[in-house]
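Preliminary data (for renewal application), manganese (II) ion complex.
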Amino acid sequence: MIPKNKCIIAGPCSAESREQVVSTAKSLAKIDSSIIYRAGIWKPRTSPGSFEGIGHKGLSWLKEVKETTGLKTATEVATPKHIEACLENDIDVLWIGARTTVNPFAIQELAEALRGTNKEILIKNPIHLDIKLWVGAFERMERCSVKNTKAIHRGFSDGSSGIYRNSPHWEQLKTFNNLIPEKDIICDPSHISGNALLVPSIAEKASKLNLNGLMIETHHDPSNALSDAKQQIKPEQLELLLNYLYEIPSELKMLRSEIDQTDEHLIELLARRMDISKKIAEVKHSNKLEIHQPNRWKSLQQRNKDIANNNQLDPAFIHTLYEIIHEASISTQKSI
Ligand code: PEP
Ligand code: MN
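Predicted structure:
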């Protein structure tokens, strides 16, 4: 459903428990296997005392998600130690948060810790509207040969009391593009809106602007989330949103479901064929007959050619297909 040129990152604001991390991931994997699974392990909170992330042990939950669902994983890094821990736990994508991008010293340290890596690094815009500071973070990465980078637009905190938690300032993305052409930009509607109800409209706007993807905070039980509870959506809401944004024509959906059912029958028929083949092997064995009977095989292929022609199928295609089926059948017979 997700187009190949779009990067969709989804998952909870924070990893809270193994159960929460794994269950949200399972629901997301069912939506689309190309989703990158995000979960914050270390949370840079505005005030101390709020949930500051589960820490190191959450990395093993992300590892489990990767092993059991096949989803790629992503988390936020703010120190070289975080990077080291992520590399040890095979995290696929690392992102640098808005509160880190503001600090050139921190960015420099991260760039040096990442030196030469080919890992995908996402850099969120700094909290306040300073495009050059954002661009500077990419330049520091470049200088350390960290080239596989993308930008995340998560809105800017400008003290306005508008409807958004962080104002999007879409027009500033042009300035960003002019300063670093061809850098992919992913939109983070969750941190822009701060409100689950506004996430779809921001996602739609980003899609209309042809941005390169979305990072959307998704939680199996948003109202009980330990951070950013108001802005997280449920996996089923994400599915509806992605369906809406990247809609598949209903005719295509129907045809796909028809083809899936046909494949199921085909495979069941192949299984039946293999069972018969096994019975044949036993009969051949008790009658001391060779497994491979060239004349029988020749006449079978001739018969198939006629059936293919009668069904407007290319006989060469059926011939090749039957060579594979025959080979599997012979090797099963030999094993009996
Ligand atoms: C986050 O993605 O959970 C996060 C803390 O984002 P930001 O750095 O954009 O505030
Ligand atoms: Mn968050």
